[in-house]
Write a structure and sequence with these properties.
Number of helices: 11
Strand order of the largest sheet: 1-2-4-3-5-6-7-8
CATH superfamily: Alpha/Beta hydrolase fold, catalytic domain
Oligomer: single chain
Distance between the termini: 47 Å
CATH topology: Rossmann fold
Structural class: alpha/beta
CATH class: Alpha Beta
């Protein structure tokens, strides 16, 4: 017997998509997801900003605001913002633009830079885009775009609290950007999820930023989750030059050496994951970690939250 299928419309009213242009940088896709359920009209919420939104927004949206999250949310309410690159520009352009946006000045003549240039050369040849070039040096401008232009503009349209404790999620070069933001006093992000950060990029820039920050600060107020896949460590020359494993352990050890009173740091080398596969698992673990609600890590906080929820249910009964 043949079944009849009746189409039904999915509710996309809580997801908003825009194109915008940042002077000196180019066009960006901006995707905004509002938390499920009714919102208090007076509420103002923090944001979770996801770099490489054209690749990662849907992964993070599923974890934060997907159907499972709607059935039983495990994170405090936040507004999700994906910042990506228009698909009509092509993948080679995306690869070059993110490299510029996420890194400080870097001549890219070291082995890691040469690897990136080789990959870029193959991408633009495949797309027949010989006019494209790749460089670095846009970190300050891109951070300024997020901090001074994008978030205030979004706050005029959505219930965002610009003074809240915001979250930044980045993968690979985006993970480098997230770690660089960790040591940037002007960054609006105090919760950092750095996935497979390309610690080997920009010729030691993360180490220099950490040292410069430590020279003039006595504390680092952050919730940090940094991780990579076990198969990224000692897998091959390209992965080794990225120093993905080195970045994870160096950041964790350096925070311990500094004894920052307000730094809450969790790190993980995830078994059976490589550079391509680690993202979804890391997003779920990382967001739980930086919001202090990861089972087995924040059990006391989870018990208090559960007790508060049960009490609220009783009052509403």
């Amino acid at each position: 017997m043949s079944l009849a299928f009746e189409p039904f419309a999915d509710d996309t009213s809580r997801i908003h998509r825009f194109l915008t242009t940042a002077e000196g940088l180019g066009r960006y896709t901006i995707e905004v997801s509002l938390p499920p359920g009714p919102l208090d009209p007076a509420a103002r919420l923090p944001v979770i900003v996801v770099t490489d939104g054209n690749l990662f927004f849907d992964v993070v949206q599923s974890v934060c605001h997907g159907r499972m999250a709607a059935a039983g949310p495990f994170l405090p309410p936040s507004i999700l913002v994906g910042v990506g690159y228009p698909p009509d520009e092509g993948f080679a352009s995306f690869y070059a633009r993110r490299n510029y946006d996420f890194h400080p000045a870097w001549d890219m003549t070291d082995p890691m830079g040469q690897i990136i240039q080789q990959i870029f050369g193959m991408l633009k040849a495949a797309e027949r885009r010989p006019e494209l070039t790749i460089s670095a040096g846009g970190y300050d401008r891109f951070m300024g775009f997020l901090r001074d232009e994008l978030l205030p503009s979004l706050a005029a349209r959505f219930p965002i609290d610009l003074t809240a404790r915001h979250t930044l999620v980045g993968d690979s070069s985006g993970g480098f950007f997230a770690l660089r933001a960790l040591y940037d006093p002007r960054s609006p992000f105090r919760r950092i999820v750095a996935i497979s950060p390309s610690f080997g990029a920009a010729d030691g820039a993360i180490m220099r930023a950490e040292a410069a920050y430590a020279a003039v600060h006595q504390d680092l107020d952050c919730d940090l989750f940094v991780c990579c896949g076990a198969n990224e460590v000692a897998q091959d020359r390209m992965n080794a030059l990225g120093h993905f494993g080195t970045g994870v352990t160096w950041i964790a050890e350096q925070c311990a050496i500094r004894e920052w009173p307000s730094a809450r740091v969790h790190f993980e080398i995830m078994n059976n994951e490589n550079h391509a596969s680690v993202g979804p698992r890391a997003v779920a673990a990382g967001l739980r970690s930086v919001h202090r609600c990861r089972p087995g890590v924040h059990d006391e906080e989870l018990r208090r939250a559960q007790a508060a929820m049960l009490e609220a249910l009783k009052r509403g009964a």
